[in-house]
Amino acid sequence: MADQFDNSPLIKSIFRDSSERMEFFHKKLESEGVLRGIIGPRDVDILWERHIFNSAALLPYIKAAAGQVSKKGGSGKKAAVGDIGSGGGFPGIVLASTLPDISFFLIEPMERRCEWLSEVIDELDLVNTQVVRARTEELISYKKAVNGVSGAQYRGDRKQKRNPGCRLKRNGKNSYNRNQDFIGNPKLDHNHEAVFKQELAWGQEPVWDREPAPNREPAWNQGLARSQKPDRSREAASEQDNGSSFDSFKRENPHFMGFDIVTCRAVAPMSKLSGMALPLLKRHGELIALKGKSAQSELNKAEKEMKKNYAVSWKVEEASVAEGLEPTHVVTVVVR
Questions:
Q1: Basic residues bias: where (predicted)?
Q2: Is 36 assigned a ligand-binding role in the annotation?
Q3: Mean pLDDT (10-residue bins), the chain, 336 residues
């Protein structure tokens, strides 16, 4: 049985210039998705409405949030979106295909799904998209290690903490360097030797800018790095994604401060999702998640957990993709 939305004018209406990409994505899912364990057998005939159109409900929300990032950071500032639990590419592939001016990082721990995502990225020529094979816990730990603090995220309204990894060696004794800026550059007296003991996951010593130029934007605010498009044949994709894509991400983003936006679809209830997604956000970042009809109930139950992870506002909206399609629900959570 064919999908009722095959060749529908809705495809062009919703995806515009990226409609051909979405049609190719649909065909790939239809022909390979079940065999490779990406979708269930019952989903083959309802791919457009259940998965692709449903993911498209996030488009105006992601676009608006990314616009705010560009407005605050300047016209050259490119928003970075982390799609956690990307799976078969929902919503990450759908969003990345339609929003080429935004960087997308598809976070997925399973090898076979990472291989699938890498193939799709290559075949759709999505140069704004990168697969990161990792669990959210690994990314959160990496973000903490880079920041040099034990909390989920540094906040300006909390008491500043010195970086415990920096010690000043003086007369054979270790002491805190009193000229150490918070997660910044050590202003060292030339007679003293700085001993940095940060254990960075990628095995590199931290590099500090001794005298940052005035009005220069810090490296971690210049957007997440995106390596040049790699060779993503099946063999190359397997070699890259078998645990090494996270290492590559760390090498390319040594000052990782989090994503501007985190998105997801059908990952976990809000009480659990809050601890997975909110710590991955930059300051004033936003979680934009697709949810079902129980979204408001989930938010009510998760209020304590959201506040614990620095959420300052949250809401649920009913999102309609097009006339005749069942609306979905979008949860947005902003952190301070």
A1: 158-172
A2: no
A3: 89 96 97 96 95 97 95 83 97 98 97 97 97 97 83 43 43 39 35 34 36 39 44 45 72 95 96 97 97 95 97 96 92 97
